[in-house]
Amino acid sequence: MRGIVSAAGYVPYNRLQRARITEVVGSGGGRGARSVASYDEDTTTMGFEAGRLALASAPQDVTVESLWFATAEPAYAEKTNASAMAAALRLDSSTAALDMCGAPRCGPGALRAALEGAGTTLVVSAGVRTGLPSGPDESGGGDGAAAVLVGDGDVVAEYLGGASVTEEFLDRWRAPGEAASHQWEERFGEARYVPVGEQAWTNALKAAGVSAADVGRVVVTGVHPRAVKSLVRRLGVDPSAVAPDLSDTVGNTGAAHAALCLTAVLEDAGAGQVVAVVNLADGADVVVLRTTDRIGAWSPARSVEAQVAAGDDSLAYAKFLSWRGMLDVQPPNRPEPARYSAPAAARNEDWKFGFVGSRDRASGALHLPPQRVSWKGGAVDDMDPAPMAATPATIVTFTVDRLAYSPSPPVVFAVCDFDGGGRLPLELTDVDPATVAIGDRVELTFRRLTTSADGVHNYFWKARPLPGGGEDS
Amino acid sequence: MGSHGIRDRVAIVGMGCTRFGELWDLGVDDLLVDAAQATFASTGATPDDVDAYWFSTAQSGMSGITLAAPLKLEGKPVTRVENYCCSGSEALRNAAYAVASGAYDVAMAIGVEKVKDAGYAGLNAFPIPNDGTGRTLTAAAMFSLVAPAYARKYGVDEDELKDVLARIASKNHFNGARNPLAQFRKEMDKDKICAMPAVAGRLGVFDCAGVADGAAAAIVCRAEDAHRYNDKPLYVKGLSFVAGNGSPQQDPDYDYTTFPEVVASAADAYAQAGVTDPRSQIAMAEVHDCFTPTELVLMEDLGFCDRGTAWKEVVAGTFALDGDLPVNPDGGLKSFGHPVGASGLRMLFECWLQMRGEAPPERRIGTAGRGLAMTQNLGGYPGEMVSFVSVLGTDVG
């Protein structure tokens, strides 16, 4: 039986209330809020977070054979982004880590390809959606990621069948390097998309051997909101079966959105339910699944619903614009960080990307980064690797640095003691400097610290408040 | 094995120091020439007498040529020394040991830093190629961790501690106002210091050392030769240096209220010098007040008072110019300014003036009769620092 073994979404902590846009620009905006990747997040870091959560709720013995990363907003061109993700996930080097980047269609397309294919594939998709100030892409877009682990055997949702339809027409486009996308007159796209969607839907139901009335939950997403709304009415499903599109709380996360909404559906689904996903983007892709008995025992590490509820919607619009590079603000008068050394980073891959230290066998002392000589007892070359990325910690003391260089000052920095022993001073993120307190519980998160003048992204780990402030949810 | 020191075997017979500050019109070469000239003016030794040089700078130049070229030295060995903010002290320590070894008769330690050509606020380290995982915090942020830790450990209200720290800065400004070479020559009321904008944690702008250009130098020779060059030499009693291994940063038992490297270097230097009760034996101390909490903790790490009591001693005025144990009578890093490669030698320069009765009357200490002075110089951060301690005396024995 082939299907979905596990899935997870990642919704970043920050939210922009759409009313904030209207306050500043005088137009645009709308109701609700959209999710916003922080200044230190990108599609790679968010994709990693989703991937980590999906693997955390998958059976322990699962071996990921392929990692596919789909996004329309890759951090790098020319260099594969999935390789940093694979390193941070500590996947075996035999894993095929591939980017499937370009248009938003690559997300749902990669998911269907994995379901149609063979082997165990972690399909990660992510979006950092933006547009010109006050435009519909800016307010309607959202940032986030999803990871779907596809394989055979212990699946929570069996793949019944699917279909794709491709049609060439000019609706949305963006030249590489452009900050925002363009769209043709909306009504033209709607006229083309709806029949394409209907065709794919019919073909997919046929392939899956089910009727529209059998579909218990359907996720309909796409790059053309008006066409999506029209298509929903033509699917022949009960209106109550249509899954929420997260538009009021997250926004459209582009390549990730179909999988993000699907994840939210699976997290709430019972056994034996037919779940369909329809995505409109340069054609249409449909997959049809049926949840299995295993879904009852499947325990998502951190649900999409919980992440949506945990957001902070106090983000100022000006800060959002500065994070997006739409508003240049005065940086601290300190040198900008240089790019990292490729050989140094390659030597220290387990540390930099995997947060693997070493623990002295004799004294138990933790060394971050890993060391050859123990600071406790002086033993030489007698340590075990100590992967610490999943270990929570407690803030011992902290400070707010208003002078250090940061893409978004000030820097909040805390001395953190790990559960089970060990300490490291770490930069905090996703925090309000005014509410940080000694004793706060934190967890590690993979972030983009800086980008050098020549475009090198420096990824490393920070700490952020543990959701719920105590026990992991 | 052991750290035996070179008590009474080497003497300082000349010292000079330039003005510190934002010296836009003076380059590294000018500062080195000025410091060397001032030093030769203070001694009977001539440039021909100096056999070897130890030249300290953190990042204002590389190799001995940075010194040999402006001074037009001919055929002389020049060792370039770098050890964070202790670089100047390290130049002196190595020059003194070279003389004590018998390798040279006379040596000069000279340090410089041209900070204000960088175009940035504060001090900024050279980027050494790395894997991008190191901290990028400022020193102010690292040292700002000390104040709340101290307040918690000893039950001091954080607002009260802020007031205590401002008193330290105010004291150093008072002293610096009486020092014509200092960067900041204005007295500063503690309330004004408290009202300054925050830099890191609760530290404000005036909790931080001045960032300055400057240079300083010393000439050393064997103790028995001292009077050939100077009637009032200063004898080296003890020199200690400790490079921390960074482990306190990862040690859950480290609590940020002490600097273990300082404690170790002080113990070593005191042992070499025969100091058993620094509070009563030491006439004055120049210490590394890079940030106000640093000076607070140093008072305890150097054994000037018991743990948890330094804040009370500060309030009591113990370390003021007219106090029981004057600390930073020249204004310290706070008000004299901190040209990294020169600061360690600048500290010695104040000992040189005070202990030999050459400090101007308006900042002269009343305790010089005790005969021993000391400097404490550090670089790095709490839990990961280098520390230097020297003890100097006016008499042999």
Explained architecture:
Chain A has 473 residues and is of the alpha+beta class. Chain A has twelve helices and 21 strands. In chain A, the strands form five sheets. In chain A, strands 5-4-6-7-1-8-13-12-11 form a nine-stranded mixed sheet, with helices on both faces. A five-stranded antiparallel sheet of chain A has the order 19-18-17-20-21. In chain A, helix 2 (43-56) runs parallel beside helix 3 and helix 6 (186-208) packs across helix 7. Chain B is of the alpha/beta class and 397 residues long. Chain B folds into two domains: 10-117 and 213-234, Thiolase/Chalcone synthase (Peroxisomal Thiolase, Chain A, domain 1), CATH 3.40.47.10; 139-206 and 235-393, Peroxisomal Thiolase, Chain A, domain 1 (3-Layer(aba) Sandwich). Chain B is built from 14 helices and eleven strands. Chain B has helices at 28-41, 65-71, 87-100, 139-144, 146-154, 158-176, 190-194, 226-229, 260-273, 278-281, 292-301, 310-316, 332-336, 340-355, and strands at 10-17, 52-56, 78-81, 106-113, 198-200, 203-204, 214-222, 234-243, 282-286, 372-381, 384-393. Chain B is globular.
What's the short story on this structure?
Chain A has 473 residues and is α+β, with helices and mostly antiparallel strands.
Descriptive tags:
heterodimer; A: 473 residues; alpha+beta; Peroxisomal Thiolase, Chain A, domain 1; OB fold (Dihydrolipoamide Acetyltransferase, E2P); 2 domains; nine-stranded mixed β-sheet; five-stranded antiparallel β-sheet; 12 helices; 24% helix; globular; B: 397 residues; alpha/beta; two-stranded antiparallel ribbon; 14 helices; 34% helix
What number of domains of chain A?
A: 2
Q: Which CATH class of the largest domain in chain B is shown?
A: Alpha Beta
Side by side, the strands of the main sheet of chain A go 5-4-6-7-1-8-13-12-11
**Rounded Rg of chain B:** 19 Å
- Give the fraction of residues assigned to helices of chain A: 10-25%
In order across it, which strands form the biggest sheet of chain B? 3-2-4-7-1-8-11-10-9
- Per CATH, the superfamily of the largest domain in chain B is Thiolase/Chalcone synthase
Query: Which consecutive residue ranges of chain A, at least 5 long each, have pLDDT under 50?
Result: none
Largest interface: A-B, 46 and 34 residues
CATH class of the largest domain in chain A: Alpha Beta
> Could you report the average pLDDT of chain A, rounded to the nearest whole number?
95
* CATH superfamily heading of the largest domain in chain A: Thiolase/Chalcone synthase
